[in-house]
Amino acid sequence: MCRPLPGRTGRCSRRSPPRGPGGQHGGPRRRRSRPSSSRRSALAAQLPAHYAVWDLLAHPDLGDIRLSRPYAERRRLLLTVLEGIGPPIQPVPATGDRTIALLWYEQRDRQGIEGIVAKRDSGVYRPGRIWSKVRHTEPVDATVIGYTGPPSRPKALAVRPPDGRQRLGRFFRII
Question: Do the domain assignments include residue 38?
Protein backbone atom coordinates (compact mmCIF):
# COMPACT_ATOMS: atom_id res chain seq x y z
CA MET A 1 0.00 0.00 0.00
CA CYS A 2 1.30 3.42 -0.87
CA ARG A 3 0.52 6.39 1.34
CA PRO A 4 1.60 10.01 1.00
CA LEU A 5 3.91 11.40 3.66
CA PRO A 6 2.17 13.19 6.54
CA GLY A 7 1.24 16.73 5.54
CA ARG A 8 2.40 16.15 1.96
CA THR A 9 0.52 15.40 -1.22
CA GLY A 10 1.53 12.68 -3.61
CA ARG A 11 0.42 10.02 -6.02
CA CYS A 12 1.21 6.37 -6.11
CA SER A 13 1.02 4.09 -9.06
CA ARG A 14 1.13 0.36 -9.54
CA ARG A 15 2.45 -1.19 -12.71
CA SER A 16 0.33 -3.91 -14.20
CA PRO A 17 2.02 -6.98 -15.62
CA PRO A 18 2.47 -6.96 -19.39
CA ARG A 19 -0.55 -8.06 -21.38
CA GLY A 20 -0.39 -10.61 -24.12
CA PRO A 21 -2.45 -10.87 -27.31
CA GLY A 22 -6.13 -10.50 -26.54
CA GLY A 23 -5.43 -8.40 -23.44
CA GLN A 24 -4.76 -11.22 -20.97
CA HIS A 25 -1.92 -10.92 -18.48
CA GLY A 26 1.20 -12.76 -19.58
CA GLY A 27 2.89 -15.51 -17.60
CA PRO A 28 1.59 -17.95 -15.03
CA ARG A 29 -0.73 -16.62 -12.36
CA ARG A 30 0.65 -16.74 -8.87
CA ARG A 31 -1.17 -15.95 -5.73
CA ARG A 32 0.85 -14.06 -3.18
CA SER A 33 -0.16 -14.28 0.40
CA ARG A 34 0.24 -11.20 2.51
CA PRO A 35 2.47 -11.77 5.54
CA SER A 36 0.94 -11.27 8.96
CA SER A 37 1.63 -8.04 10.80
CA SER A 38 4.06 -9.81 13.15
CA ARG A 39 5.91 -11.26 10.13
CA ARG A 40 6.01 -7.81 8.47
CA SER A 41 7.46 -6.33 11.68
CA ALA A 42 10.08 -9.09 11.86
CA LEU A 43 11.02 -8.58 8.20
CA ALA A 44 11.23 -4.81 8.67
CA ALA A 45 13.59 -5.33 11.61
CA GLN A 46 15.73 -7.86 9.68
CA LEU A 47 15.76 -5.98 6.37
CA PRO A 48 15.33 -2.27 7.06
CA ALA A 49 14.68 -0.10 4.01
CA HIS A 50 16.28 3.29 3.50
CA TYR A 51 15.44 5.86 0.85
CA ALA A 52 18.14 8.38 0.01
CA VAL A 53 16.89 11.43 -1.90
CA TRP A 54 19.35 13.51 -3.92
CA ASP A 55 17.15 15.88 -5.92
CA LEU A 56 13.66 17.34 -5.95
CA LEU A 57 11.98 17.50 -9.36
CA ALA A 58 8.45 18.44 -8.28
CA HIS A 59 7.28 20.44 -5.27
CA PRO A 60 3.87 20.15 -3.56
CA ASP A 61 3.19 23.89 -3.96
CA LEU A 62 5.35 24.80 -6.97
CA GLY A 63 4.65 21.81 -9.23
CA ASP A 64 7.31 20.71 -11.73
CA ILE A 65 10.53 22.57 -10.89
CA ARG A 66 13.02 20.58 -12.98
CA LEU A 67 13.60 23.16 -15.67
CA SER A 68 12.76 26.35 -13.79
CA ARG A 69 15.00 26.08 -10.70
CA PRO A 70 18.77 25.56 -10.39
CA TYR A 71 20.05 22.59 -8.37
CA ALA A 72 21.04 24.74 -5.35
CA GLU A 73 17.44 25.97 -5.02
CA ARG A 74 15.98 22.49 -5.60
CA ARG A 75 18.31 21.19 -2.87
CA ARG A 76 17.07 23.87 -0.40
CA LEU A 77 13.46 22.99 -1.27
CA LEU A 78 14.24 19.27 -0.83
CA LEU A 79 15.61 19.86 2.65
CA THR A 80 12.48 21.86 3.51
CA VAL A 81 10.16 19.11 2.23
CA LEU A 82 12.04 16.43 4.19
CA GLU A 83 12.35 18.53 7.35
CA GLY A 84 11.05 16.63 10.35
CA ILE A 85 10.58 13.34 8.49
CA GLY A 86 13.91 11.69 9.32
CA PRO A 87 15.08 8.17 8.54
CA PRO A 88 14.41 5.98 6.73
CA ILE A 89 13.75 8.81 4.22
CA GLN A 90 16.65 11.22 4.15
CA PRO A 91 18.59 13.48 1.80
CA VAL A 92 22.02 12.35 0.67
CA PRO A 93 24.91 14.36 2.09
CA ALA A 94 25.97 17.28 -0.10
CA THR A 95 28.86 19.72 0.01
CA GLY A 96 30.41 22.41 -2.14
CA ASP A 97 33.81 21.87 -0.51
CA ARG A 98 36.21 19.83 -2.66
CA THR A 99 38.26 18.65 0.35
CA ILE A 100 35.17 17.26 2.09
CA ALA A 101 33.99 15.63 -1.16
CA LEU A 102 37.35 13.86 -1.56
CA LEU A 103 37.24 12.70 2.06
CA TRP A 104 33.73 11.29 1.53
CA TYR A 105 34.92 9.60 -1.67
CA GLU A 106 37.67 7.76 0.22
CA GLN A 107 35.53 6.88 3.25
CA ARG A 108 32.48 5.70 1.31
CA ASP A 109 34.51 3.16 -0.68
CA ARG A 110 35.04 1.16 2.51
CA GLN A 111 31.27 1.30 3.11
CA GLY A 112 30.50 -0.15 -0.32
CA ILE A 113 29.25 3.09 -1.91
CA GLU A 114 30.37 3.15 -5.52
CA GLY A 115 31.36 6.81 -5.75
CA ILE A 116 30.18 10.41 -5.67
CA VAL A 117 28.08 12.58 -7.96
CA ALA A 118 29.08 16.12 -8.90
CA LYS A 119 26.42 18.60 -10.02
CA ARG A 120 26.63 22.31 -10.73
CA ASP A 121 24.70 24.41 -8.22
CA SER A 122 23.49 26.59 -11.09
CA GLY A 123 22.39 23.68 -13.28
CA VAL A 124 18.74 23.05 -14.08
CA TYR A 125 17.55 19.49 -14.59
CA ARG A 126 17.92 18.21 -18.14
CA PRO A 127 17.05 14.74 -19.38
CA GLY A 128 20.17 12.69 -19.82
CA ARG A 129 23.31 12.93 -17.73
CA ILE A 130 24.73 16.44 -17.34
CA TRP A 131 26.37 15.68 -14.02
CA SER A 132 29.51 13.68 -13.34
CA LYS A 133 29.69 10.44 -11.43
CA VAL A 134 33.12 9.65 -10.03
CA ARG A 135 33.33 5.92 -9.27
CA HIS A 136 35.89 3.85 -7.45
CA THR A 137 35.77 1.39 -10.36
CA GLU A 138 34.51 1.91 -13.87
CA PRO A 139 32.00 -0.49 -15.44
CA VAL A 140 33.07 -2.39 -18.54
CA ASP A 141 30.81 -4.08 -21.06
CA ALA A 142 31.59 -7.76 -21.40
CA THR A 143 30.05 -10.83 -22.99
CA VAL A 144 29.01 -13.56 -20.56
CA ILE A 145 30.37 -16.81 -22.01
CA GLY A 146 29.63 -19.18 -19.12
CA TYR A 147 28.91 -19.58 -15.45
CA THR A 148 29.41 -21.91 -12.51
CA GLY A 149 26.68 -23.02 -10.14
CA PRO A 150 22.98 -23.29 -10.89
CA PRO A 151 21.59 -21.11 -13.72
CA SER A 152 19.05 -19.50 -11.38
CA ARG A 153 21.79 -18.36 -8.98
CA PRO A 154 25.25 -18.47 -10.58
CA LYS A 155 28.24 -18.50 -8.23
CA ALA A 156 30.64 -17.04 -10.79
CA LEU A 157 30.53 -15.72 -14.33
CA ALA A 158 32.98 -16.36 -17.15
CA VAL A 159 33.21 -13.16 -19.18
CA ARG A 160 35.02 -11.82 -22.22
CA PRO A 161 35.66 -8.05 -21.98
CA PRO A 162 36.55 -5.95 -25.05
CA ASP A 163 40.27 -6.83 -24.71
CA GLY A 164 39.35 -10.44 -25.66
CA ARG A 165 40.77 -12.08 -22.52
CA GLN A 166 38.51 -14.51 -20.70
CA ARG A 167 37.96 -14.02 -16.98
CA LEU A 168 36.15 -15.92 -14.27
CA GLY A 169 34.92 -13.86 -11.36
CA ARG A 170 32.39 -13.70 -8.54
CA PHE A 171 32.10 -9.96 -8.24
CA PHE A 172 30.38 -8.92 -11.44
CA ARG A 173 27.23 -6.85 -11.41
CA ILE A 174 24.86 -7.55 -14.28
CA ILE A 175 23.01 -4.53 -15.62
Answer: no
